[in-house]
Amino acid sequence: MAEEKAIFAGGCFWCMVEPFDQQPGIKKVLSGYTGGHTVNPTYEEVSSHTTGHTEAVEITFDPSVISYADLVEIYWRQTDPTDAMGQFQDRGDNYRPVIFVDGDEQRQIATQSRQNLIDNNPFDDEIVTKIEDVKPFYVAEEYHQDFYKKDPLRHDAEEAQRKEFIRNNWDK
């Protein structure tokens, strides 16, 4: 069985795990950090805005069950693609929305999907989500993994703005 990986940044990684984790064909979703210049950063270092990293999820999936294109579409519906400096209540460059692509095929799929979103923009503002080459992914500390399962009440509180945005923009 072949496995592939996808890496998406879209605000707090706590809120990015569940939508992917619930899909058939997903083998694993890890919270972590990518896109920066520090090797193996900690949460505190990333939160200090000095490492260049953003919080992200690394998704291991079976492409015979769920495609990368499907994952990109799920990603869009978890984010505000018009907000370059954070997502919802999470502000700063460590929460910026980025699709990290691994190779030409992922780049082509992500670029086409982004262009489709631009062409059919349901928002009042410009689509600003970046597409960048994959960079080293550093797994976050254990207490960040599967947060929605470990602390569902806090997860739901963190998720409130995201869910409201999705209802008001994506689900109209």
Automatic annotation (TrEMBL):
Cited InterPro entries: Met_Sox_Rdtase_MsrA_dom, Met_Sox_Rdtase_MsrA_sf
Gene Ontology MF: a single term: peptide-methionine (S)-S-oxide reductase activity
Keyword Transferase attached: no
Catalytic machinery residues: 12
Keyword Protease in record: no
Peptide methionine sulphoxide reductase MsrA domain location: 5-154
Keywords attached to this entry: Oxidoreductase
EC code(s) of this entry: 1.8.4.11
Substrates-to-products reaction catalysed: [thioredoxin]-disulfide + L-methionine + H2O = L-methionine (S)-S-oxide + [thioredoxin]-dithiol; L-methionyl-[protein] + [thioredoxin]-disulfide + H2O = L-methionyl-(S)-S-oxide-[protein] + [thioredoxin]-dithiol
Described function: Has an important function as a repair enzyme for proteins that have been inactivated by oxidation. Catalyzes the reversible oxidation-reduction of methionine sulfoxide in proteins to methionine.
NCBIfam families reported for this sequence: msrA
Family: Belongs to the MsrA Met sulfoxide reductase family.
Protein name: Peptide methionine sulfoxide reductase MsrA
Species annotation: Paucilactobacillus nenjiangensis
